[in-house]
Each structure stands twice: as C-alpha cells, then as structure tokens.
Amino acid sequence: MSQSTQMNMQEFQSLARILHNVLFYDPTTELLENLIKYQVIESWPMFSGSQAEAQAKTQIQAYLQTWNNEQTLALKLDYGQLFYGPAEPSAVPWGSVYLSEKQLLNGESTQELMVFYQQQGVSFELDSNQPVDHIGLFFAVLDQMFAQLAIDENETLRSTLIILLQQHLLPWSARCLSLVQQHAQTDFYRGFAIFAQAYLDEVCRELQIVPLATQLYR
Q: Would the keyword Electron transport be found if you checked this record's keyword annotation (predicted)?
C-alpha cells in the first residue's frame, strides 16, 4: 500500500467517525465541545473546493464560535425535526423509506442490508430498536472498514466496501442529505450535510464507484 493511499484511508476513517456521531446521535454538549477543542472544522478537508463546501465550513465555524450551552436545546430540536419527528421527519434517515414504494421502515432493502451485514459479520449494539439502514450507522461501518483498510489493503474488504456503498447507501443518501440541507434550521446540520455529501463523492472518486441509478419514492 502506498503512503498516500494509507493516508487517504486514515482520513476517510476519522471523518466517517465524526459524521457517524453527528448524524446518528442527539447532539450533546460533549460533542460540540470536542469539535471546538480539537479544531475539527478548521482541519476538515475541502474535497471539491466548491463554493458550497467553503460556505459550509464557514457557517459551521461561525456556529461553533458563538455556541454556548443555552443553544443545546435548539440544536436538539433541529436534529429531532430533521430525523425523528414527533411529526413527519423532514429528512428521514432510513434508506427503505426512500427505496420502497410504500415508504416503509424495515422494508425489503433493509432486509437485504441485514443479510449483507450478517454475511460480513457486521453487528451493532444499539440502545434502541433502530433499523440498520440509518444513514448515521452506515458511517459507523465505514469507520470500521476504512480503519482496517488503512492497515491492510485487503481486496476482499475493498470489494465489500464498494458493494455497501454502491448497492445499499449511495442510491438514496444524496436525497436524504439534500433534504437535511433544505430543512435544517441551524447552520450546524446544514453544513454537515454538505460535508457528508462531499465526503461520499470523494470516496466514490477514490474507489472508482459509479452509484446505481435507483427510483426513489421520497
């Protein structure tokens, strides 16, 4: 493995972990404080060099510079309306809602993903009964896979990663992230949706993945 390839895998791994924490969990004071303490946004790579990425970085930095504990509730409410409700979520985070005509949770695509994970030995210890096709959980799996690829460029694992992205995540993730950008009430989630999309685009470029064209129902 070349040094540059190893560095790419390490970078993809560390960014996937952050995106997992941002997209899967309710925002916490600890998360925000760590982003500030470790200057995460200042060092976040600009993959495309686009104006959208640059603006997202500026917006998140500005948000964090003025952030205080009193804003935690507003951020939690934003996260809730985007991903959970109590009314209809603005940016449903589960893939089957986009991929099934009836827009159901735990649909056929979820079952196929569960079989894929079982075959690959991927499992989760979750605090709640959460469908495994939550966009935030995909980033947890990417975290694990890129961590392994940074140590050993295993072609079998690389092929597994490509299948995970091409068949199970990329067909719908851009739609979900675009809805986050459209409906987020805070620059924090609006910006991270742009970061997540740019990240996935860069992974596709690095791994030479062509996303499958799939009909979406939301």
A: no
* Tokens representing residue 63 in the block: 């948000």
Angle at the Cα of 128 from the Cα atoms of 127 and 134, rounded to 5 degrees: 105
Listed residue (12, 15, 185, 166) closest to 83, CA to CA = 185
Q: Where are the domains of the chain?
A: 3-207
pTM: 0.96
Which residues neighbour 140 within 8 Å (Cβ) at sequence distance 6 or greater?
Answer: 16, 17, 20, 24, 124
**Short-list 64, 92, 94, 99, CA closest to 182:** 92
Kindly give the parts of the chain with pLDDT less than 70: 1-5
- Token pair 């005509």 is found at 101
Helices (H) and strands (E) in the chain, counts: 10, 0
Give 213-216 contacts, CB < 8 A, sequence gap 24+.
Answer: 213/171, 214/99, 214/171, 214/172, 216/98, 216/99, 216/171, 216/172, 216/175
**Beta carbons within 8 Å of 132's beta carbon, 6+ residues apart:** 110, 113, 114, 117, 124
40-95 pLDDT tens trace: 999 999 999 999 999 999 999 999 999 998 999 999 999 999 999 888 999 999 99
Instruction: Return the SS3 of 92.
Output: coil
